[in-house]
């Protein structure tokens, strides 16, 4: 129904959905493969790494690979200016108070942006980094300075700052951090925000009910502004509300449950944006199943729908042991009065790289 049948896939792209649901896809064997891989699992948008997330320097694209990427986008009807949201390397930290390390991060960052523009890609997602042991406000200014420099050195790619799960020195778990940096950007047309549902919940913003969801977006609009919202990362959360732990979970199996994803599937503000799954699927076929789930949720208008309740129970049961274990850890820390360590970019990198090894193959 309303689908474009593909000879190469058991999943098909929706031609009727109002939303660009997709996933973080492998580019193994060549960046052009990310396009066909996305199409194979029925994505209407997708993300990928532009180069290896585990190496500072990677070989440049060949002219043939760039042309093949563009040809595949045309063949499979993806607009690289709007439908693709590459993810920056996790260890890029433009806010690092160590000048040498910050410059090294900038070199990798500007290389990523250049790759985007070679491919004709219009958006790029960046973790805003950590101020580490530096003065937080000073490092926010440094981050903005590097962003301004990169914007001047490139032509059109828009940088999206992602909200984060942690507290303390990690930038972006508080909307005011992102607002502060955006205010310092000289060309406002080249900056935006990507909201991650797991990070949002882990940072203490409840979005699991209609009331909480609306409150969250009202806060976002008041502090940052809807005009800067340019992408969404969709993940359930293995950890409970306010745990400050960046632990992505398969949709419906975590502490968020299905209702927030049903709300997202009916939110007019999100139409036209790349909405990217980063759930811990071991195979990309799992993303095809989740894209289908999201497109089904788009048809479920009532929160008390019987089929929705049944599906939510099924998925919650699958994730029950994991939630129980994480809740026990969270409660234990609270009872002991243990101070949560301040997450920094190094911890964040380790968490993501470990997870990404399971979730996605890279070049």
TrEMBL record:
Alphabetized SUPFAM superfamilies for the sequence: Xylose isomerase-like
Cofactor entry: Zn(2+)
Keyword entries, A-Z: DNA damage, DNA repair, Hydrolase, Lyase, Metal-binding, Zinc
Domain of life, per lineage: Eukaryota
Ranges that cross the membrane: none
Database matches in CDD domains: AP2Ec
Basic residues: compositionally biased ranges: 354-363
Domain Xylose isomerase-like TIM barrel: 37-294
Keyword Metal-binding: yes
Region feature (Disordered): 305-363
Gene Ontology process terms (BP): base-excision repair
Gene Ontology CC terms: mitochondrion; nucleus
Single GO term (MF): DNA-(apurinic or apyrimidinic site) endonuclease activity
Comp. bias (Basic and acidic residues): 305-334
Homology family: Belongs to the AP endonuclease 2 family.
NCBIfam families: nfo, PRK01060.1-4
Protein name: Apurinic-apyrimidinic endonuclease 1
Organism: Zygosaccharomyces mellis
């Amino acid at each position: 129904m309303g689908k474009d049948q593909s000879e190469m896939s058991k999943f098909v792209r929706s031609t009727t959905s109002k939303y660009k649901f997709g996933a973080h896809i492998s580019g193994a064997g060549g960046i052009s493969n990310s396009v066909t891989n996305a199409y194979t699992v029925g994505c209407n948008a997708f993300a990928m790494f532009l180069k290896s997330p585990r190496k500072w320097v990677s070989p440049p694209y060949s002219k043939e690979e760039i042309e093949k990427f563009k040809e595949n986008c045309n063949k499979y009807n993806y607009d690289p200016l709007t439908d693709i949201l590459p993810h920056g390397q996790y260890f890029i930290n433009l806010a690092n108070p160590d000048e040498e390390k910050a410059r090294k991060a900038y070199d990798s960052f500007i290389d990523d942006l250049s790759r985007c523009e070679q491919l004709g890609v219009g958006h790029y997602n960046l973790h805003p980094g950590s101020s580490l042991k530096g003065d937080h406000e000073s490092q926010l200014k440094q981050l903005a300075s590097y962003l301004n420099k990169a914007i001047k050195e490139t032509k059109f790619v828009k940088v999206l700052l992602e909200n984060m799960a942690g507290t303390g020195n990690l930038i972006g778990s508080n909307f005011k951090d992102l607002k502060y940096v955006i205010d310092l950007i000289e060309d406002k047309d080249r900056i935006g925000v990507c909201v991650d549902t797991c990070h949002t919940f882990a940072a203490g913003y409840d979005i699991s009910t209609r009331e909480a969801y609306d409150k969250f977006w009202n806060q976002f609009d008041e502090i940052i502004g809807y005009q800067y919202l340019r992408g969404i990362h969709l993940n359930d959360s293995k950890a409970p509300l306010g745990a400050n732990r960046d632990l992505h979970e398969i949709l419906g199996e975590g502490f968020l449950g299905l209702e927030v994803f049903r709300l997202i599937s009916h939110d007019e503000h999100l139409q036209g944006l790349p909405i990217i799954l980063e759930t811990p699927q071991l195979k990309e076929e799992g993303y095809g199943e989740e894209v289908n789930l999201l497109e089904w949720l788009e048809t479920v208008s009532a929160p008390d729908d019987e089929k929705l309740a049944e599906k939510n129970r099924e998925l919650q049961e699958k994730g029950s042991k994991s939630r129980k274990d994480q809740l026990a850890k969270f409660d234990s820390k609270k009872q002991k009065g243990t101070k949560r360590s301040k997450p920094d970019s190094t911890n964040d990198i380790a968490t993501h790289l470990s997870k990404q090894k399971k979730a996605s193959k890279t070049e």
